[in-house]
Amino acid sequence: MAVEPVAPLGGLFEPELVSIGADGIPTVSVPLAELLDTIAKVRGPLQHSRFVDVTAVDRLSRENRFELVYLFYSMELRSWLRLKTRTDREAPSITALVPGANWFERELYDLFGIEFQGHPELRRIMLPDDWQGHPLRRTEPLGAEPVDFTVTRKVYGHDD
Amino acid sequence: MSDDTAGKSGAPGLILSRLEDWARESSLWPVTFGLACCAIEMMAMSASRFDVARFGSELFRASPRQADLMIVAGRVSQKMRPVLREVYDQMPEPKWVISMGDCASCSGVFNNYALIQGVDKVVPVDVYVPACPPTPEALLDSIIKLKERIAADSRSARHGAQTSPGLGIPHDGVSFQG
Amino acid sequence: MATTTDAAEPRELLTVNMGPQHPSTHGVLRLELTLDGEVVVKCRPVIGYLHTGIEKTFEAKTYVQGVVLTDRMDYLNPLGNNLAYALSIEKLMSCDIPPRATVLRVLLAELTRLASHLMFVGSVALDLGASSPFLYCWREREKILDFFEGISGVRMMTSFIRPGGLARDIEPPLLAQISTFIDAMPAYIDSYEGLLTGNPIFRERTEGIGLLPADEALALGVTGPALRGSGVALDIRKANPYCGYETYDFDVPTGTVGDCFDRYLVRVAEMRESVKLCRQTLDSLPSGAVQTSDRKVMPPPRAELAKSMEAVIHHFKLWTEGIRPPAGEAYVGVESPRGELGFYIVSDGTGRPIRVHERAPSFANLQALPRITEGGVVADVVACIASLDPIMGEVDR
Question: In chain A, which residues have their Cβ closer than 8 Å to the Cβ of B119?
Fold first, then answer.
């Protein structure tokens, strides 16, 4: 991954924090404590005000296993900008700045177990309210049921 | 044959029960239970090219109280499971269930935590229609097969299929209470 | 039950449940409506009734097996989903697509957009009580589905656009049939407009209903025709062209007020633009291959296996391990009939992704539903849902 020259990002970030991925979208990585300030910078001076997406990737590392990935778009510059941070369990909610992030954060709470501080209604959204577990974590199983093929009945002990 | 021809004897009883069978199979009204992609093909079946109305399913009833056929068209998730059972329970007898598509029959491509692996774990199914999604012609074929069975004897044709035993995992086709 | 005191008599608020089994909620959407008489005081959508765990299932499949899953997310735009997924993987693998495949991808994406908007016009009319436009729109939609069946063998879930190109080529006789259909389409669109656009009942039920101001739409993350109906001219095909969209001549229709009628007009105008785009792709279709020659992505043709050892090895690796993008991530935003669609794919260099996330336009658009229904009457809720055109398959994934 090449390091992007700082100029297009307005000199607001240290060069080591910025990279460009295979899709050409500049990516800024910041620690969790600076997340809200960085989002304010991204949406303000950098003009990427339209919120597109927030998702998480389970990196399975010992510390800060979840990588939160925010995607913003600039209507003026017609470009995307990606913002990444790492967390173990909690993150500040951005719904006060961006109302559209509401359901996205609820989905991450439901499927990953990441708790967003300050979210107006942090409850499960996809799975039933009494569901146990957070399935999209890579430590959780897929939950596949063994398929009842006649040729494998002996294996599963139902040879009748 | 029928459970309750005891009250009806002889030729009039037979004619009456034949009339019942004919009436039931000629006016199967499905309840709108389109869930996902199969619902689109079910809509295609009710559109003018395939036209299920000529087979008697003139109207899809929104209220299960007014329907006698439930076509489970699509994948049933964990959250939807009690809803499926409740809608089925609200339908008056006699009622039949068609499991449309791979997802309803056996969860199709999605063998995972989120879907119930076949609706026959929740409701008894009469006809399974394979394919993903089945073409409207396949769904019409399933309705015709069901009609043939109903025309033969509409009382014992109910719940003709046993719920699938799967792998000995007890199925809990629970009724949604309250 | 909460009570609001009016001057004369205390009023009670009534909570009504709408869905998830409902003929007009466009799938398994549940709404908890709090009503003060006929007025909707609060509308709370409850989703998740179609949660299929698709994003988790991607992690258990190879990249090409994953194409099959993408069809079933936004099931009215299967080829568009295939395209977005393929574009992300091609970015990860830095893979070039031959020109014929690129042009055919645009043709298929626009035909799918036409089919989706035909379904929209039919269902918005049906939801409001007009049953004939549904049958007319489906007559044309069936023709498009016949083309898909001729191309791939499957009416809907074609899985035809794959990483590296298309599954196979489209033969000239079929292209000629598509061309004839495209020429006839504007007259059909005129006939739908004749039934609905000037219809006083339709207009009364959609004009001034479900107003969504542009700034609120942007804040809520709304994209697509719902955003363009509010006057914001954002179309990814124009702003960030992919698949050669910059070489075609088409307009981006926008509304003015942001009501249900504007969103309907935008989609009908988009149907006309899609027809123009299809015409241009058919006229400018180059000859050549429809699959990349990069053997790390697409398998070699069978005939080559008899001649080249390398071809055999590539074939073997692709069929046993699947394609293996280098470690990294990619997101490509495309314009689906519902808005900005994109697949964020994270690869660790093996044959299976570690994360595939779909940025589903309907998921964001549906967050606008409380905004456009609250303050209106309960009879307009159906028109509002229909105008946002949500597909629960991609909302819940």
Answer: none
Structural Rg of chain B based on CA atoms:
16
Q: What is the CATH number of the domain that holds A82?
A: 3.30.460.80
Shortest alpha-carbon distance between residue B93 and chain A (Å): 30
Instruction: Report residue A155's pLDDT band, with 50, 70 and 90 as the boundaries.
Output: low
What is the torsion angle, in degrees rounded to the nearest 10, for the CA atoms of residue C139, residue C145, residue C146 and residue C152?
A: 180
- Residue numbers in A near C220 (CB within 8 A): 99-100
Which residues in chain C show pLDDT less than 70? Answer: 1-8, 10
Amino acid making up residue C345? I
Sketch out chain C's domains with CATH numbers.
3-46 (no CATH), 54-396 (1.10.645.10)
For chains A and C, what is the number of CB pairs under 8 angstroms? 105
Scanning every residue of chain B, which has its alpha carbon at the shortest distance from the alpha carbon of A153? B167
Contact residues on chain B for C69, CB-CB shorter than 8 A: 109
Q: Residue B114 and residue A144: Cβ atoms within 8 Å?
A: no
The confidence score (pLDDT) of residue C8 equals 64
- What is the distance between the alpha carbons of residues C161 and C167, in angstroms, rounded to a whole number? 6
pLDDT in the model for residue C369: 94
Domain count, chain A: 1
Who among B41, B75, B112 is closest to C50 (CB)? Answer: B75
Q: Which of residues 126-155 of A touch B (CB under 8 A)?
A: 126-128, 131, 135, 141-148
pLDDT tens profile C19-38: 788 887 788 999 999 999 99
Q: What SS3 string covers C241-308?
A: CCCCHHHCCCCCCCCCCCCHHHHHHHHHHHHHHHHHHHHHHHHCCCCCCCECCCCCCCCCCHHHHCCC
Please say if the pLDDT value at position A136 is more than 90.
yes
Q: State the pLDDT at residue B138.
A: 94
- Provide the residue count of chain C: 397
Nearest by CB to residue C331, choosing from A1, A23, A49, is A23
| B133-156 per-position pLDDT tens digit | 999 999 999 999 999 888 887 676
ipTM of the shown complex: 0.90
Rg of chain C in Å (alpha carbons): 23
User: Which domains does chain B carry?
Assistant: 15-152 (3.40.50.12280)
Structural domain containing residue A61: 7-156
Structure-block tokens of residue A134 = 């957070």
How many angstroms separate the CA of residue C89 from the nearest CA in chain A? 10
Contacts of B166 in chain A (CB under 8 A): 145, 148
Is A2 contained in some domain? no
Nearest CA in chain A to B82: A128
Q: Which residues of chain B have pLDDT under 50?
A: 1-7, 160-178
Whether A1 is covered by a domain: the verdict is: no
Q: Sort strands B30-31 and B69-73 into parallel, antiparallel or unpaired.
A: parallel
Q: What is the pLDDT of residue A9?
A: 63
The contacts of residue C75 (CB under 8 Å, 6+ apart) are B36, B37, B40, C156, C157, C391, C393
Q: Coil, strand, or helix at residue C330? A: strand
